[in-house]
Amino acid sequence: MLILRSAVLISSLTLVSSAFAVGITVINPSFEADVPNIGHADGNYAQGPFTGWIADSGAGFWAPVLGPNTFAAIPDGVQVGYTGNGGVGAMFQDTAEVIAVGKTYKLSVYLGNRANLPSYGMNGLGAISLQDSLGNTLATTGLVSATSNQFDLQTLYYTVPIASPSAGLNLRIHFSSPGGSQASYDQVVAEAVPEPASMAALGLGALALLRRRRR
User: Helices (H) and strands (E) in the chain — how many of each?
Assistant: First the structure.
């Protein structure tokens, strides 16, 4: 009976946590808002800033021609973002989320590794980071790569410590690739989880609910 009650409590806390994770608005999260204007056999592309994203000349978005040279499939839509095109490339978006002490932030994005990059002398490395709006890195995956011809899901977490100098600044989503690399990105999702004190209060509420059910 105790095991059953514990399982019910854990299930309740999990549901509470999921219910109170707040989505952070990401503008143009799947890179579908604009039309690429530069032709290429592997798929048309565009360089530099575009809807929702600040990008340098080594980053942008593109519409891959699916197949053995690029990707078997795209997670969402027909276009993806990219960083790196032989040289260094980076892109970012400042969200409306104000960084708060104790909050945990979660960033999920599909990272793609274009299959024919070796024929161009490149690899598929990219870095996924959470930063503040001044460009200070809060958390990063470091340089990672997906399976060739595929997109793999990457997830990053960051909990804001007490006395963080980034508190009060806006949360930034940042992607980058070093020279000789190119990475693609799709379906960007950001979330905020309430600080521990709020979660504790929610947990106590779940416990009270469980006690009422026992009566």
Answer: 2, 12
